[in-house]
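pasting for ref
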Amino acid sequence: MDKIKNNALVKKIGFNRLVLCCVLLLMYIVFAILSPTFLSYNRILSALNYSYFLGFLAIGVTFVIATGGIDFSIGPVMFAAALISGHLLTKSGVPLPVCLLVSVLVGVIYGVINGYLVAYCGLPSFITSMASMQMAKGAGSVFTKTQTISWPQAAEASGWYRNLVKFRTAGGVQIPTGLIILVIAMIIFSMILTKTKAGRYILCLGSNKEAVRLSGVNVKKWEMLAFVICGMCAGIAAIFFVGAYTTIQPGLGDTFNNEAIASCVMGGTSMSGGLASIGGSFIGVMIISLLQEGILAMGIQKDWQYVITGVIVLVAVTADIRSRRRKN
């Protein structure tokens, strides 16, 4: 095992990422054997549809977890952004580009609120995000008067936004454009986290916040920035959610918090902070999305996905704790 870990190529890719890729491939093979329909192109597209919005949620929460914090509001914030912007589009006649901007803006607002309360007011991120989660669920319901919002279909003039998720060619072939956008976003945010001053400070906050503060760094600013990025990504995720599924119901979104956090932890982001991987989060998202689609393809109740996701989180957190203890 040590020889494999010390291999130059394995070190470059990352042993944890390599294991996750093997798990992803194994899952695909198992689901394909158990359910032959899983090999169909439509099944693959369906799994990818689930990964787009979940991927942006995972990107955002990776930044927050890197600081040693947590954000349980991302799912409801995504739904609130989709509900508010969708209501403006379908009920008030606001132009689509403005509504897409509103969606991102709603996410940023919640990010600013969470970041300010945690960084400048000293509130625990767990309590703050739980409160924001309830606020987001309530805001979406109040704004739409508890009505379900259905965004325009692709065939309509204002449904061009769905091309962000998948583009249908003249021959009827569906191209997963959302995957291209998500991969580009992953690369950009990965560079921000690992190659910029902001990213390095965010990671340092998770390693030793007090040491960073004593070195003269404005830790409050960088901690707040992590939450703002998280909120912005939740607003972007809303666009990809409605692009894939169209209809949004008020008061939902909680389950996506757990799946996004599970993707991050599975991908090597430490719940203690200081260690994070956007690329690992991406693979984790693909595993969760494949699991969700595989369970549906086999005709198993969706509730089993929550059970399996919970087990994955426990295993990943346990492995992270043991790894840190060995290093210490």
